[in-house]
Amino acid sequence: MKLKLKTVFVLYFMVSLLGLVYALMQLGQRCDCAEHDLPKDRTISWLRGELNRLQEQMKKSEATRQPQKQASKSSLPTIFVITPTYARLVQKAELTRLSQTFLHVPQLHWIVVEDSPRRTPLVTDFLMQSGLTYTHLHVPTDKDRKLQEGDPSWLKPRGVEQRNEGLRWLREDRRPRPGDDRQRGVVYFADDDNTYSLQIFEEMRSTQRVSVWPVGLVGGMKYERPVVEGGKVVRFHTGWRPSRPFPMDMAGFAVSLRLVLANPDACFDGEAPMGFLESSFLKGLVTMEELEPKADDCSKVLVWHTRTEKPKMKREEALQAQGLGSDPAVEV
Ligand code: UGA
Ligand code: MN
Predict the structure, then answer these.
(1) At which positions is Mn(2+) bound (predicted)?
(2) Per-block mean pLDDT, blocks of 10 residues, the chain (332 long)
(3) Where on the phi/psi map is residue 60: left (φ > 0), alpha (ψ -120 to 50), or beta?
(4) How many domains does the chain have?
(5) What is the position in ligand 1's atom list of the atom closest to the CA of 250?
(6) Rounded to an integer, what distance in angstroms lies between the CA atom of residue 217 and that of residue 133?
(7) Interatomic CA distance for residues 236 and 246, integer angstroms
(8) What number does the ligand 1 atom closest to the CA of 194 have?
(9) CATH number of the domain residue 86 falls in
(10) Which residues does ligand 1 sit against, CB inside 6 Å?
């Protein structure tokens, strides 16, 4: 029987009230009415008994429910999401969108790696109030590897050192120690500007080695995806250099933590030619035949390679020139 706390309180209140009324009635009366009061006494003790019984039942159901909940939660493999991020006008908006998606995902550990020489106050405060389990790291991209203002976005790979720093932290934190089971988990590289459906996290949770799925709005196409025949990946649907070892976007695969730990040298190669960044990490870990297709044999798009427009600051700059710019103390 399901008991509401409210019901117990109402019962408790009624019992107390009856007790009070009874006590008041006794005031100033001679005590020769034992026979008359008997039914009232009986009601009170019956109600007290009921209350005790209900309280016992409540305790019991609490005790049996709690461990079940905890067991089912902790038996899920943790999803470690590695996100490179860098300071720009839209950064807080991107991190807000991302964190509010992640809040809906059980057993998720967010590894946020700032592309900066130190942890910034914006990201530090943001993570602290996020409500998520997280690790906050930072590593600056070398100047000669970083895109400069005006460079086309494809010129140099982005987020490379940051993802590698996330991997380094994981390998250190989850290094096998006798008798622990902290090597169970899944690693996913989630850029801060993409759009993630909650379902993609449930798809990747069962990853044994490397799991794969389609990514929407990427590579100048509606979607790119692994092509699945007889439950196996046989080739890739992509508009550009399908001969690459793994012609997939970063958002289209997840790797088991055990595989990451078993291959301590697997990392992203910042010198890899354009479009080969994902392959540089995956090629030492799996073959195409071993890939585990998810999202209904790669027939569903559950993640989108969205890109946020850079906000124009023309009017802000004009106002600033007149000393009337927005208050710099307001965090955006
Ligand atoms: C595409 C892929 O989706 C990325 O996974 C891949 O890293 C990238 O190309 C590449 O070729 O390097 P794209 O949208 O062009 O992504 O890249 P961004 O979203 O601009 O950057 C990827 C991640 O790196 C983001 O999380 C971003 O915050 C971060 N980043 C970007 C930095 O940490 N530092 C930068 O200077 C720029
Ligand atoms: Mn992006």
Answers:
(1) 193
(2) 67 73 61 52 73 71 53 82 98 98 98 98 98 98 81 85 98 90 95 98 98 97 98 97 96 98 97 95 97 98 98 97 97 97
(3) alpha
(4) 1
(5) 5
(6) 30
(7) 8
(8) 19
(9) 3.90.550.10
(10) 83-86, 115, 141, 146-147, 153, 157-159, 162, 191-193, 249-250, 277, 305, 307
74 Cα to the center of ligand 1, angstroms: 32
Residue 17 lies in a domain: no
Token pair recorded at residue 112: 């946020």
Three-state DSSP class for residue 202? helix
Look at the block and give the residue holding tokens 């949770």: 205
Q: What pLDDT shows up at residue 70?
A: 52
Domain assignment present for 306: no
- Chain mean position to CA 48: 47
Residue 67 lies in a domain: no
Distances (CA, A) of 209 to 40, 156, 271, 289, 331: 71, 29, 25, 12, 41
Q: Which one is catalytic: 50, 278, 289, 290? A: 278
278 counts as catalytic: yes
Q: How many residues does the chain have?
A: 332
Q: Is 158 annotated as a binding residue?
A: yes
Q: What is the torsional sign of CA 126, 131, 137, 143?
A: negative
Give tens-digit pLDDT for 209-223.
999 999 999 999 999
Nearest to 255 by CA among 40, 90, 77: 77
Residue whose tokens read 């009986």: 42
